[in-house]
Every structure is written in C-alpha cells, then in structure tokens.
C-alpha cells in the first residue's frame, strides 16, 4: 500500500512520454487502466486551468503557498510575515510593506491556519485570514490581488494558534492563545497564568474583546448559527511541563457563547488590559462552557450542517462527537492512533488524519452516532505522519466531496534526496468514490500545517488583471524630482522598457523617497527596480505605485536596473542615481536624456560606439 503512489507517478510519467500501453495480460490491463485513470485524474495539460486553488499555510516560512488542484502545480507564494526580496516584499526598510510588517513584530512568522471568508455558508472568494503563532499576529489577504491587506498584533495572549471566522456573519475572526502567561501583570508567577481567545474585527483586525480563562486553547472552529465558537484545550492542568500537561485523563472543548460575551462587554463586565476589554470567564457564567473530552485533544471541526463539533483525540484513539447546540458529547468512536484533524465530504462522511498510524480514515458520522459497527468506511496510508487534512470546500456548509489533501509532516524517501532535511510532503486523495485513492504527491517548503481548497469558479472572477491607479500614482509625462532641503522625492514611472527619469542627482546624505509607478495596463508586465550597492529591490506590478525611502550615503554613480525580464530591451531598462558631494551643482534633468543633455550631464564624454 505504501508504494501505490510511486507506481501511479511512474505510470503517469510513462503515459506522458509514451502514450498508454496496450499490454496483453488481463492483470496488466487492469493495472494500466487504474494507473491511467489515476494519472488522468491529476493531469491538467499546459495552458488549461486547475479546478481548485489550494491555499496552504507555509508554517515557519511565514507565507501562504498557492497550488493548483488536481495538477498539484505550484502557482505562487504569498509572503506575509517574512520579507521576500524577489517580490519586493518587506525587503527594504524604507518600504511600505516593511514598515507595516515591522510595526507589528519580527520579520518572520509561523503561519498555521488559513481561513476563507464566507457568505451564506459558502466561500465567497474575498478574504483569506492567517495566524502567526510565533509572534501573535493575524493577517488578512485580499484575494483580488493575493497580497497582504492587513497585519495586526493580538494583545494579551501568546502562541496565537487556532484561527477561525465567526459564522455565519464572518464579522469576527477569533484566535486562540495556546501558551499561558500573566498578561495582566507581566509576572513570572505561574499561579497567575491564563490564556485568552481574542475576537478581532474581521476587516480591520483590531481586537474587539477577549475571553480569558485558566488553561489554554489550541484549535478553533465556529458553529454555523452565530451562537457558539469552539476550541480544544489540552492543558486544562495549567501545567508548565509536558508531563504536567498530560496528567488528567480528560481535558476539554471550550464553547464560547459569543452573543453573551458581546453582552458582557456592552455591560462593562470586563477588565481593560492593554486597551482591550478582557472578560474573565469565571465572572460571566455561561460565557465559557467546558465540555470534557479525552486527554489532550487537538483538532476541532464543526460538521458542514452545523450539528456537531468533532474533537480529535490525539492521545486518545477517538473522536468526540459533541452536539453543537446542547454541548453534550453524544458519541466517541474509535478511529485509530493519533487522530489530529477531521474534514468532510458532502455525503455525511468524516475524514480524520491519524498521525501515528500515518493514515486517513474515512468514517460515517451518523453510523458512528448510532453505534453501528461498520461506521469505518475506508483507510488509506499516507507518507508520512499526517498533520492536517482538508477536503475541498470542507470549512463551508457545502463541501465539494471530490478532493482531499493530506498534509504530511515527513517525506522520508518520497523525493530526490537533498541532504538530511527533506521537503514536506502533501498527497492528493481522490475521495469521489467509496474508496479513497492517493493519486499524487507534491513537495513544498517547510511546513504546511493546514490548507483550504476553493473552486476556481468561485475565485477567478475576483482576481484583478492590473492594479487600479492609486491617487498617489505617478502619471506618464508627470515624472519629476522635488527637492526640499536634504529630502528628495523622485516621482518615477516605468513601462516597457524604460524608467523615467533615467537619471537623477542628489547630494550625499540626502534622504531619497522614490515613488515608482508601473504604468503598464497589461496583466503580468511586472517591472522591478534594483539599486546597485544600496540594497534596494522593488517590484511593481501593472498599475501599482510603491514608495521606498533610503539615505544616499555613498558618493558616486549607482545604476538602477529592471529585475523582471520584460522585453528585448529589458537589459537596457536602467538608469543612474548620481550622488554628488554636498554643495555640488545638481542637474535637474527629468525625462529622456537627449544626447546634448547626456553630454552635459556626464561631462561631454561620448560613447565609443557613437
Ligand atoms: Cu495541527 Cu498548528 Cu493546525 Cu499543525 S496544528 S498539524
Ligand atoms: Cu522592465 Cu525588465
Ligand atoms: Ca491535558
């Protein structure tokens, strides 16, 4: 079983190279048919588009990875909590993206849970939220551009881990503090340790209120009817050692009554900590209900119909099925060893990842509730040690029921060996039939935790072709250099294949603010500006204006050149920053440098080719 997908991939390659074979023996024919159909399931010819976007959290890469499903083609990385020089993201200390990120914390992050916005129980393709567990931040991605729209620090908690949106309205995203601290007193006294679940305005990401309690909160999910949100809590012991955290046989799923919490805030039943109203759960009865579940639960998922909350047992081989309205546990079916996360199809089945067993187990929810012995439908081996698993559409009320991704922690020998550390591994599983089938494996950077899959048809129409011209855009023909003491503002445009101005002059020590607008109106015509020896690299997509500030502290000639190969004249797309001694006369030339101006500005030295 462990080698099935190798066979499939090998056959996939041979079909591509040699066409399908017509071997004679019945066994071989059957095998070939199976293999062919697996290959066909994932084969998307060049130029044809995938059916789904898969958005994978990048873990300690601090980003989100975009893959096409079913082809498993890597499409894009969205850098969020880490600079990405290639994309001009947060790499220049004087850039907007750097300032926004640095204002909230360090230049790296640990993304875990991508969450899509919904309207009427369906993914609407507008927003993607994601947490940074390491530095307690939440970011919002605009799915029109696949760029970060907002990043905010969440006060009063540590280990911002579980993230979900409050359904059905999506007016909040809420984030769980996994690591306990004394947020109120900043003491080291573990007797005062608490944790909190923070409710953020989904658009501004301002923390509106928090509910604090003794213990911790791990994975988050929302009921579907605007009443409760749920979190698994593995450290009800409030311990500070791993031994201490597994002392109790039962921990809990916490249910927060959101309307009751809002009422408590309105009635002033809170303490303000770092500007945020914090409701202590002990003081507002009913705001937090603890539902006992076996030892150190992990994943927490509400079924698409909103009826049940499923808490995966982790240290217990069970999944607890909790009624999402009465908050009572109604069944605890055994599923296998190390259950971590559960996802859903559109036919009443749950799919639970088994970390220890390295399997996905498919089981029928109603049969498990009724205690019917055949509630386990199927098991499939994955490679290896799966963390999250997610089926297409499964966080909405309308799962698609065709594809499931297994996000595996170890790849071992799955891919070409590249040293002691191997890439992370995802497997694509066809869940459209009764039996699951692994049809492809694809590597990625460390370390995807969770993923969401959204149909192309939902999202593609939102995606813009070019940026709308901002009010700050520099218009063609209106390029200029504006001096104000030692501050110099350079208003520059770029279009295939020229920067205007192609030259600007400053005094040593001047603070230069570069406004660069890409005036292209064609999709995909990105230009970049790298400034030699100044450590500046800017990428400007069509229609976009970027602002970057730096100090021109080195004397001499510094070329800026385009970093994105844009035309046959790409290499010629360059210009000079001339840094002269303080007091020297500066040439104010803007626009195309004529021969005469060129002669004047460079001291009359002609090129030997002219
Ligand atoms: Cu299970 Cu951070 Cu969602 Cu990793 S968490 S697996
Ligand atoms: Cu613009 Cu290369
Ligand atoms: Ca525990």
Keyword list:
about 600 residues, about 10% helix, binds dinuclear copper ion, 8 helices, disordered N terminus, 40 strands, 5-stranded mixed sheet, binds calcium ion, Immunoglobulin-like, 6-stranded mixed sheet, mainly beta
Name given to the CATH homologous superfamily of one domain? YVTN repeat-like/Quinoprotein amine dehydrogenase
What is the CATH class designation of one domain? Mainly Beta
Bound molecules: sulfanyl-(tricuprio-$l^{4}-sulfanyl)copper, dinuclear copper ion, calcium ion
The percent range for strand residues is 35-45%
What's the arrangement of strands in the largest beta sheet? 8-9-10-11-16-15
Give the overall silhouette.
Answer: globular
Percent helix among the residues? 10-25%
Describe the structure.
The structure is a single chain. With 610 residues, this protein is mainly beta. Among the domains are: 36-108 and 333-464, Methylamine Dehydrogenase, Chain H; 480-598, Sandwich (Immunoglobulin-like), CATH 2.60.40. Helix content is 11%, strand content 40%. The strands form nine sheets. A six-stranded mixed sheet has the order 8-9-10-11-16-15, covered by helices on one side. A hairpin with a 6-residue loop joins β19 (308-312) and β20. α1 (4-18) crosses α2 (26-42). The longest helix has 17 residues, at 26-42. It is globular. The protein starts with a helix and ends in a 9-residue tail after the last helix. Residues 112-113, 161, 219, 298, 340-341, 387-388, 449-450 line the site of sulfanyl-(tricuprio-$l^{4}-sulfanyl)copper (K7E).
